[in-house]
Amino acid sequence: MNVELRHLRAFVAVARTVNFTRAAEQLHIAQPSLSHTIRQLETALGIRLFARTTRSTALTQDGERFLVEAQAVLDRFDAAMEQSSRMASGELGRLRVGYLIGAAVDHVPAILREFADQYPDVALELTEYDFASPNGGLDSGETDVALVRPPLDGVPDAVTTTLLSERCVACVSALHPFAELPRVTVAQVLPEPIVAAPGDNVWRDYWILASYRDTPANITHEAATFEAELQSVAIGRGLSVVPESVARLYGRQGVRYVPIEGMADCEVAVVHREDAPRSAANFARIAARVTAEGSGPDVRG
Amino acid sequence: MNVELRHLRAFVAVARTVNFTRAAEQLHIAQPSLSHTIRQLETALGIRLFARTTRSTALTQDGERFLVEAQAVLDRFDAAMEQSSRMASGELGRLRVGYLIGAAVDHVPAILREFADQYPDVALELTEYDFASPNGGLDSGETDVALVRPPLDGVPDAVTTTLLSERCVACVSALHPFAELPRVTVAQVLPEPIVAAPGDNVWRDYWILASYRDTPANITHEAATFEAELQSVAIGRGLSVVPESVARLYGRQGVRYVPIEGMADCEVAVVHREDAPRSAANFARIAARVTAEGSGPDVRG
DNA sequence: TAGACTTCATAGATGGCGTCTATGAATGTG
DNA sequence: CACATTCATAGACGCCATCTATGAAGTCTA
Question: What is residue B57's predicted lDDT score, i.e. its pLDDT?
Fold first, then answer.
């Protein structure tokens, strides 16, 4: 017969009360069951733990020694359960965070600081993704949570929390006919040669305005980063559709940003899978709160 | 549901092999049972321990952390079992040894030395008993094993190992008619006034030769030690029947020792209860061996 | 000293659950 | 493309943990 924790729990209860009846009540079992369990334990160990009369119960010398051991095992077990509970609640563990370049850059430091504050025992692992991986590692399972720009692709059971939205603008060469316009329409943009993300997925489709088109876009170049896009644009390979905040982040050397009338705003969201560890949800919650509260360090200007 | 050691054992086995099928074989259970057990554990802990595909198994981050915990619990448990095993075999614990004054005095030091040598982790507690407690504390449960002179009384399930036997002699005053005789018969002793142990038990009966008598003995005095007996004898209260070795131990100031013809030899034995801890039997075994091997320090002369 | 009460052990019944067999689904492999 | 391997699921079975009922023994009280 295998000794189980229930034997130790029973033993410790009896050892502490020195009374089978009361110990049984504490354990929420019947007294004969407890007697049986203790007997099992004694048989398995090969030692007498209690000196029983019909009227009283006392620990034997061996029982006293074993009480220390049993208690130690149970304490160790409780510690393990405590730790697993902290893991379950997301207080303890590791969280792999992915972020797409240019997504919520203003807020990321505050989000991370707040999360680290609130969950000091969670090890954060940050990975930056470029437009070649617009899902921020969620599709491959490399990350647990990600700051990305929808739409996502290949992320089953994704839980998405939108953090902010902003206008989309057309980024054109300073020499481009659009360069000095106050705005352009989607219809004006569609025929233009366009610089797009690499690959072939719903995310790239989004930024080349595929949903507005009848015929395929004229993609003249592919770039995985804003810098690369802007360079391509600057040397006249075509225009590029980007979030408005890019204007702020990457300046205007050789390019101009022109709002696109009639195009829906684009968003930044924090995303995790439904079955991700709890800390992913915690991160998403904190990200949403931090983004809503402060607008981040004001680097505009 | 309560987490039991079998869950931890199952978890550790799977974590080590990273293979449900092989782990199940090691645990001697069927693979579906193991899957079920692991699932139970995961549910109870609220965390995913394994990342399972239909083709492979891997520990999650949480699983890796919990493996350390689970292993620690099992290690602690194994240590407890190891210790209880040592208690069961009598290698570890306490042994309460009682000895009757004058019983095997020559051999006791060697016995204790040998036992302490062989069982260094058993704490010996020695208690001396006089003729008021000829059972050496076995009857009251004060001791676990005792060096005594049979017969015993009130010790249920006594396991007796005879160590040695010796002649009985009559101890008489130097002025007593028997004093210069080379020997006396039982019949000669019976009518004499006699000094006996206190109380009323089979042991006292033995030394007053009750089994040889038709009528009660004429007990003139009671004494709980040899010294007291010899003093009573010396001042003429009567004779006393004692083991021959007493002559050697207590000298001859005012008394003489006369062999009793026709009286069976008396014995020294090591005794413990059937249900005594294993170390009691160990002690008895060692006592028998030491007594048989050496005759102890030679203090005769 | 007798009766009542307390406490632990025993006996027998029952039901929950741990384990089993059989089977399916998924996926890497020759 | 068929096969082998691995884990999950479903349903059945049987052990054993627990239960209720009762007994035995000792303590306390009147």
Answer: 81
DSSP state of B120: T
How far: B54 CA to D5 C1' (Å)? 9
Phi (first) and psi of residue B30, to 5 degrees: -80, 155
The pLDDT, as a whole number, for residue B280 is 94
Q: Which residues of chain B have a CB within 8 Å of the CB of A79? A: 69
Nearest to A251, CA basis, from A297, A207, A181, A301: A301
In 10 A of CB B153, how many CB atoms? 17
* DSSP three-state, residue A171: strand
Compute the distance between CA of residue B81 and CA of residue B139 in angstroms, rounded to an integer: 32
pLDDT in tens, A189-202: 899 999 999 988 88
Give me the residue from A65, A72, A80 closest to B87, CB to CB: A65
In chain B the beta strands, taken as DSSP E runs, fall at 50-52, 57-59, 93-100, 122-129, 145-148, 158-166, 168-173, 184-185, 194-196, 219-222, 240-243, 255-261, 266-273
Residues 56-95 of B with CB under 7 A from strand D: 56-57
> Chain A: residue nearest B2 by CA?
A6
Contact B51, B38 (CB under 8 A): no
Chain A residues near residue B79 by CB distance under 8 angstroms: 69
Please answer whether residues B155 and B138 qualify as being in contact, where contact means their C-beta atoms are separated by less than 8 angstroms.
yes
Q: How many angstroms separate the Cα of B98 from the Cα of each of A32, A128, A273, B102, B162?
A: 37, 78, 72, 12, 16
| pLDDT of amino acid A295 | 59
Mean pLDDT by 10 residues, chain B (301 residues): 90 89 88 90 90 81 90 94 92 93 88 95 94 89 91 86 93 91 92 92 91 90 91 90 87 86 93 89 95 61 32
Name the pLDDT band for A298 (thresholds 50, 70, 90): very low
Q: List Cα–Cα distances, B33 to A123, B16, B40, B58, in angstroms.
A: 35, 18, 10, 19
* Degrees to nearest 5, angle at CA B76 with A92 and B47: 30
> Which chain B residues touch A144 with a CB distance below 8 Å?
none
Task: Verify whether the Cβ–Cβ distance B84 to A66 is below 8 Å.
Answer: yes
pLDDT at B75: 94
For B259, phi then psi, to 5°, come to -55, 145
DSSP for A61-129? HHHHHHHHHHHHHHHHHHHHHHHHHHHHTTSSEEEEEEEETTSSTTTHHHHHHHHHHH-TTEEEEEEEE
Query: B65 and A92 in contact by Cβ < 8 A?
Result: yes
CB B19 within 8 A of CB B58: no
Residue A204's SS3 state is: helix
In terms of pTM, does the model score above 0.70? Answer: yes
For residue range A109-168, what is the model confidence (pLDDT) as tens digits?
A: 999 999 999 999 999 999 999 999 888 988 888 899 999 998 888 787 889 999 999 999
Residues of A in contact with B73 (CB under 8 A): 73, 76-77, 80
Contact of B230 with B157, CB cutoff 8 Å? no
Answer whether A155's CB lies under 8 Å from A280's CB: no
Nearest one of A199, A92, A94, A98 to A142, comparing CA atoms: A98
Strand D contact nucleotides, protein CB < 7 Å: 5-11, 17-21, 23-27
Looking at the complex, report in whole angstroms how far the Cα of residue B257 sits from the nearest Cα belonging to chain A.
45
Question: Which residue from B6, B46, B76 is facing A4, i.e. has the nearest CB?
Answer: B6
Strand partners, A178: none
